[in-house]
Amino acid sequence: MHEMSIAVAVVEQVEEAAARLADGTGAAPSARSVHLEVGELAGVVADALAFSFDLACTGTVLEGAALTTETVPGRARCARCARDWPTGMPPRLSCPGCDGAATELLAGRELRITEVRWAEAEQRRPVATLPEEQ
Amino acid sequence: MCKVTDLRQSVLARNDRGAQELREELAARGTVMVNLLSSPGSGKTALLESELGLARLRGVPVAALTADLATENDANRLARSGAPVRQVLTDGLCHLESAMVRSHVDSWLPEGTHLLFVENVGNLVCPASYDLGESLRVVLASVTEGEDKPLKYPTAFGLAHLVLVTKYDIAGAVGFDEPAFLAAVAQVNPGVEVVRTSSRDGDGAGVLLERALAVHAGAAVHRPVMARTAVQHGHAHEHGHEHGHAHSHEHPHEGAAGHTRSVDHTH
């Protein structure tokens, strides 16, 4: 079960974001909720992650924070015949039309923190926007 | 309203950055890393014993890291080949991460090693998500495991550059349905090469070594569909930071992470 390692990685990154927010003021805010995108093909079990997340948050600025996860369905496209299809699970990654292997994965492997909401504060402030990945 | 940080950050960014840096450093040292994944008992150690022995016979400088939750049994077996071998004990962790491999590379890997084989923890779930810095990812499945294994563990098989069928000598006895297995592999990883091996009768011996040496010589590896993400973000999310703090200086890797395709470890 690597969900514990995933949860610890989430906590570390949110702690880093909290430390950036604390720059100059000294007080790191505590997180109220963390939102994740989890692709259908990411190999992560949401329930196991939720269980691990609570443990990983103990004693950190995330203590008591809620984890919300959004499942991103797998989707693929054939570069040869230009059709796209839901990959399903287990995924079908050869083209259902031409049976070719010129497939690109459009979505489904996401494992990404999209948003953190902090406990205190007044207004919406997108602060530490980082380059998007995957 | 509460304060919100729009983070858009890959959860495994740190591991993936570490893996990419390690891959580049190894390339500069002339070393190619091979990551071997399978379920427990599929025959990773037996196969590796044979390949390390062949490498030694041919004068190819190879080394191996072998990971287990406990015991040094595998390192002792592999060391009989005469190659430098180190046991990685994960203390219960179900997979290797790039930082764990990095510490061994820094402290132990002999200079001039052409191929570093990493025998991952026997597990087809967790290790699949962690890029270690390998240039060749090999997934093994023994004939006793069931033809639908690639469908049950699509991330592992879907990201493989090479699939090895092991214990092929008993395929008939256990009724291995090879066409069904090949169809399952093709469904999750179309185009990947599948090779039959048997450590007992020598079938396929040396194939892994040859494929790894080809990568060392610069040959292109298979690009699994799962590693071919079509998303072209173009780094459009590097907007300015409202607070003007020295974010990019304090966290030099965060910016770089956006340019690293965390799922694509093919080169």
3D architecture notes:
- The complex is a heterodimer of chains A (134) and B (267).
- Chain A is α+β, with helices and mostly antiparallel strands.
- Chain A folds into two domains: 1-73 and 108-125, hypothetical protein PF0899 fold (2-Layer Sandwich), CATH 3.30.2320.50; 74-106, no CATH class.
- Chain A contains two helices and six strands.
- Chain A has helices spanning 3-22, 46-57, and strands at residues 31-39, 66-72, 75-78, 84-86, 103-107, 111-118.
- In chain A, the strands form two sheets. In chain A, strands 2-1-6 form a three-stranded mixed β-sheet, covered by helices on one side.
- In chain A, strand 1, helix 2 (46-57) and strand 2 form a beta-alpha-beta unit.
- In chain A, helix 1 packs across helix 2 (46-57).
- Chain A starts with a helix and ends in a 16-residue tail after the last strand.
- Chain B is an alpha/beta fold and 267 residues long.
- Chain B has a single domain, classed as P-loop containing nucleotide triphosphate hydrolases (Rossmann fold), CATH 3.40.50.
- Chain B has ten helices and eight strands.
- Chain B has a seven-stranded parallel β-sheet, sandwiched between helices.
- In chain B, helix 7 links the parallel strand 7 (162-166) and strand 8 (193-196).
- The termini of chain B are far apart.
- In chain B, 50% of the residues are buried.
- Mean pLDDT of chain B is 87; it is low at 231-267.
- At the A-B interface, helix 1, strand 5 and strand 6 of A face strand 1, helix 1, helix 5, helix 6 and helix 7 of B.
- Strand 6 (111-118) of chain A pairs antiparallel with strand 1 of chain B, so a sheet runs across the interface.
- Chain A: Keywords: Metal-binding, Nickel, Zinc.
- Chain A: Pfam families: HypA.
- Chain A: Involved in the maturation of [NiFe] hydrogenases. Required for nickel insertion into the metal center of the hydrogenase.
- Chain A: Belongs to the HypA/HybF family.
- Chain A: It comes from Actinacidiphila glaucinigra.
